């Protein structure tokens, strides 16, 4: 089965991704090299030139990603994930509400989660947000990754998990 268009993860423009990566790496490097402090949720650099430069880079990043950026997110972010993952997440559009997802379509999406080679962390996060919105369940990841906490077996097939999600979303 092929997923309908609104269930597919949007693609990210390669040039946009590269520029976003460069901006994140630059800001992260400056946070590492320069002296700064935080006052009233604002990052203050000792050097005005650095502060101005960082603000320009941050502004460009906000233009590219269409979201508000807190540069402190780039202080030691690489401990948790790669720069490419961070950049892709920033560029990924907001997951939509998709009405009338069928049991079969949902099972296909759930199957995607079990094939780690085919799904990136960014795709996983996008699909989780999409499913949370579409089914009104804020614990959708429990159904997919830990079905036993939802009264199912860890060995349940995607179609069985899909049925449970649909059933619980109607409660």
How are the elements arranged and paired?
Elements: H1 14-33, E1 36-39, E2 42-45, H2 48-65, H3 83-91, H4 103-114, H5 121-135, H6 140-145, H7 158-169
Antiparallel strand pairs: 1-2
Helix pairs in contact: 1-2, 1-3, 4-7
What does this molecule look like?
The structure is a single chain. This protein has 171 residues and is mainly alpha-helical. It folds into 2 domains: 78 residues, no CATH class; 75 residues. It contains 7 helices and 2 strands. It has a two-stranded antiparallel sheet. Strand 1 and strand 2 form a beta hairpin. Helix 1 packs antiparallel against helix 2, helix 1 crosses helix 3 and helix 4 packs across helix 7. The longest helix has 20 residues. The chain starts with 13 loop residues before the first helix and ends with a helix.
Total E-strand runs: 2
**Which blocks of ≥5 consecutive residues have pLDDT under 50?**
none
Main beta sheet strand tally, sense and closure: 2 strands, antiparallel
Tell me, rounded to a whole number, the average pLDDT.
Answer: 89
Radius of gyration: 20 Å
Shape: elongated
Oligomeric composition of the shown chains: single chain
First-last Cα distance? 28 Å
Strand content: under 5%
What string gives the helices and strands in order?
HEEHHHHHH
- Structural class of the secondary elements? mainly alpha
Q: How many structural domains are formed by the residues?
A: 2
Spatial ordering of strands, largest sheet: 1-2
- Share of helix among residues? 40-55%
Number of helices: 7
